[in-house]
From TrEMBL:
Lineage: Bacteria, Bacillati, Actinomycetota, Actinomycetes, Streptosporangiales
Name of the protein this chain belongs to: PspA-associated domain-containing protein
Organism of this sequence: Herbidospora galbida
Domain (PspA-associated): residue spans on this chain: 1-92
């Protein structure tokens, strides 16, 4: 799966890593629903850090379509709330 972090580029994520990313996404959703800025910020950074850690960066000149687009680390809680789908940022 190709994932783009806005402002950073694209990474390839293995299917086996989606479970842990979904767990982090659930924490992020809960923080947004509770309107808890501190937990939101921590959960967003944990999710993005994990994507960076498990993802294999694509070349800067690669033009692959992104299957998921994640917000930048400095996104506000309202910006991320607008990006949430029925299954969070990461479906599954």
């Amino acid at each position: 799966m190709i994932v783009r972090i806005m402002g950073e580029g694209q990474v390839q994520i293995a299917d086996g890593d989606l479970g842990v990313l979904n767990a982090l996404d659930t924490e992020l959703e809960s923080a947004i629903e509770a309107d808890d800025e501190t937990t939101f910020r921590s959960a967003l950074h944990a999710l993005l850090d994990k994507v960076r850690h498990v993802g294999k960066p694509l070349a800067d000149d690669a033009l692959e379509p992104s299957e998921l687009i994640l917000p930048p680390a400095d996104a506000s809680i309202d910006e991320v709330r607008e990006m949430l789908g029925d299954q969070g940022l990461i479906p599954g």
